[in-house]
Specification:
11% helix; 8 helices; single chain; Jelly Rolls; 683 residues; globular
Length: 683
């Protein structure tokens, strides 16, 4: 990584300082006799920064569909204190194995296969499927101390015929032909990085679950998918019948009118409308032999607040259907499904599964894909909410992103409603940005203090199949309707406070905040910065006049850095932070005083690329310095700070913004200055 540990000279008393002049002549917010504070603004051509305080999503860990868990030291003495990540790993085209990574901070990942020589999971020759190993997720069971891996892999095309005739596949050419069929599997290990071995069902149970043979032609526990297909299909048809009973009549009328409006013939519109309201809930079928198969990918284990185990997954289809929807069921044990609890949780194009007509057909959410589910619960004012999050659109497309649906019932498999965009439905997306792509297929993880989301994004900002892991903070906020929803501080490309494994955290929220002018004061230290223009319930502090912002701590705190997040609105962005003062105490020197930073620059070259008038969201002006015991911080901002160009330069030719001087061509500042968030890095 292009990083360095920045060392700022320690001790203010040893440095030369400038006096600010007579007190009566000082502008509001400035203190006479203040000391100039040495600092690093992290603005440099090499992109280097202090990695003990900050991180940046540099996409250095190549993988896709990351599933992440955190194991605390209380849960495991041997493996605790680490995050573990499992992901789609093999980019050879076959996807025949998984690796495991571990990290202390969700940014710097150690590939445990490279460290130990142990691959997390690689199917043997007698496994039911051995290609397209996608999107694994792991759960740690504290009761037995074991790690359970849920995964999907394809029964190859010729192997599907083994269901019908019992013939083993002999060659790769054979199994690569026709349609493949994905099924879920379960593997278990005593060690988080493996090796994971397929769960060892007894022979009778194995035989009941499947007739699939491995490449060796032998049947074994390793050749056994997680679900008994007959039981899955029996329950799925019941669920499907209940849904379709209400949808067929009105749904048919809707789809018929839609297809007619699109120019389809009456016969074609009739056929397509009938299909849209009467899909069979299976991926692969062979009507000549009476077989139908419930095919599934993207498993996600979930433990409810009461300890009940659940498994979410996608019903996966290809061919003429080509849709994926989210389903879930209760698990008596991780290896023992409760088939009677099977429920469909999302339907593509529909806001709820129970809706009789589709919604949002012309919006961002219009998609035939709801995949990569993850369930999060949170309690607000004594009420538990469930947020079902999932990815939409094609994984290789720029608009691949994460959507959110909310369930306000007391049951994790209750009715979910997809939120509208303005309600917080579009949880994570790169659609508004030219510099990001494909921010999706994610998992949420908590260290007990904060919640984070780990997701993949395309290495190429224009899209594609090559992906890498990224991470950002997550909060629960109330939208404009008062509904508590998940909110991501991201996706980010700029410096952020380190996620974990640091002694310095954001303590701004512990300070008493006051302002001499402006509105939305609470937005300064609520932990949220604004990313998307369509979200207006996450506010920004705004002022149209010079203002002093004061942060006062109840007792002195050790502080080593400060960050000011710029506005998501280009027209409201600040040019610099005019002045920052820190009232500090040096107990070793028995000295109290004030230190200041003047004209703290915002990195315009990074967050506002040359020739543009748009902001890269989540950027901030940063100052890191030697630790001070700080009791109060005063920040002076001025909307009328001038932005200047070199003479003859236009906005389209702008290379950078600099402070006004005698040689610059001065233009007016902004009418309204906004600050999205202030972060104080302290102990």
């Amino acid at each position: 990584m292009r990083k360095k540990l920045v060392a700022v000279a320690a001790g203010l008393l040893s440095l030369a300082f400038a006096f600010a002049g007579c007190a009566q002549e000082l502008p509001e917010g400035q203190t006479e006799g203040a000391l100039a504070l040495p600092y690093d603004d992290m603005i440099n051509a090499e992109g280097e920064y202090d990695e003990s305080l900050f991180y940046r999503n540099e996409l250095e860990t190549e993988c896709a569909d990351p599933g992440v868990i955190y194991v605390s030291e209380e849960e495991s003495v041997e493996y605790g204190g680490w995050y573990y990540m499992y992901a789609t790993t093999d980019y050879t085209g076959w996807a025949r194995f998984y690796d495991c990574w571990r990290s202390k901070d969700l940014v710097n990942w150690e590939n445990m296969t490279e460290t130990t020589g142990v691959r997390a999971f690689e199917p043997s020759s007698d496994h039911y499927g051995f290609e397209s190993l996608w999107a694994p997720e792991v759960v740690y069971d504290g009761e037995d101390g074991k790690f359970y891996m849920f995964y999907s892999c394809n029964v190859p095309g010729s192997e599907v015929q083994n269901y019908l005739n019992g013939r083993a596949v002999q060659t790769e050419a054979e199994w690569n032909s026709n349609h493949a069929m994905p099924l879920l599997g379960l593997a278990v290990s005593d060690c988080p990085w493996g090796p994971y071995e397929p769960y060892d069902y007894d022979a009778d149970d194995s035989a009941a679950r499947s007739n699939v043979t491995g490449r060796s032609g032998e049947k074994s526990a390793a050749a056994t998918p997680l679900f008994d297909n007959d039981k899955m299909m029996e329950q799925a048809r019941k669920v499907f019948a209940e849904i379709q009973e209400a949808r067929v009549e009105s749904g048919y009328e809707y789809w018929y009118a839609e297809y007619i409006a699109e120019g389809a013939t009456e016969e074609d519109a009739k056929t397509r409308a009938e299909y849209m309201v009467s899909q069979e809930p299976y991926y692969y079928s062979d009507p000549d032999h009476g077989h139908a198969y419930f095919c599934d990918i993207d498993p996600s284990p979930y433990i409810a607040p009461d300890g009940t185990k659940y498994l979410l997954f996608n019903r996966n289809e290809t061919g003429s259907v080509g849709t994926t929807t989210v389903w879930g069921m209760k698990m008596n044990e991780w290896w023992e499904p409760d088939y009677s609890s099977l429920r469909q949780l999302t339907e593509t194009y529909y806001n709820t599964v129970d809706d009789v007509t589709p919604a949002n057909r012309n919006s961002y959410e219009e998609t035939h894909i709801n995949e990569g589910p993850f369930l999060v619960d949170y309690t607000v004012d004594g009420k538990t909410y469930y947020s079902l999050t999932f990815s939409i659109n094609n994984y290789a497309a720029k608009n691949y992103g994460v959507w959110q649906a909310i369930n306000e019932s007391e049951y994790p498999l209750g009715s979910y409603r997809k939120l509208a965009e303005e309600e917080g439905g579009r949880l994570l997306t790169a659609m508004e940005f030219t510099y990001l792509s494909g921010t999706g297929h994610h998992s949420f993880v908590s260290n007990g203090e904060e919640m984070f989301v780990v997701y993949h994004e395309h290495i190429n900002p224009n899209g594609g199949g090559q992906r890498a892991a990224a991470a950002d903070r997550v909060h629960v906020v109330q939208n404009n309707d008062g509904l508590p929803v998940l909110y991501v501080n991201g996706p980010t490309v700029g410096l952020q406070p380190k996620l974990d494994d640091t002694e310095y955290k954001n303590i701004a929220g512990e300070a008493e905040v006051s302002v001499s002018a402006g509105e939305n004061t609470g937005a300064l230290t609520d932990g949220l910065f604004t990313v998307y223009r369509f979200i207006d319930y996450v506010k920004e502090y705004q002022t149209q006049e010079r203002a002093v912002i004061t942060l006062k701590f109840a007792e002195p705190r050790e502080v080593t850095g400060i960050m000011f997040y710029n506005s998501r609105y280009f027209e409201n962005t600040f040019f610099n932070i005019a002045r920052i003062e820190f009232d500090f105490t040096d107990t070793e020197q028995n000295y109290s005083g004030t230190a200041y930073i003047e004209n703290l620059a915002f990195d315009w070259d990074r967050y506002c690329p040359p020739g543009t008038e748009s902001m890269r969201s989540g950027g901030s002006a940063v100052a890191a310095f030697s630790p001070l015991m700080v009791s109060e911080i005063r920040i002076m901002v001025d909307p009328k700070t001038s932005r200047v160009f070199e003479e003859g330069q236009t906005t389209g030719e702008l290379d950078r913004l600099v402070l006004a001087d005698d040689e610059g061509y001065v233009i007016d500042g902004v009418e309204t200055l906004s600050i999205a968030e202030i972060v104080v890095l302290g102990k």
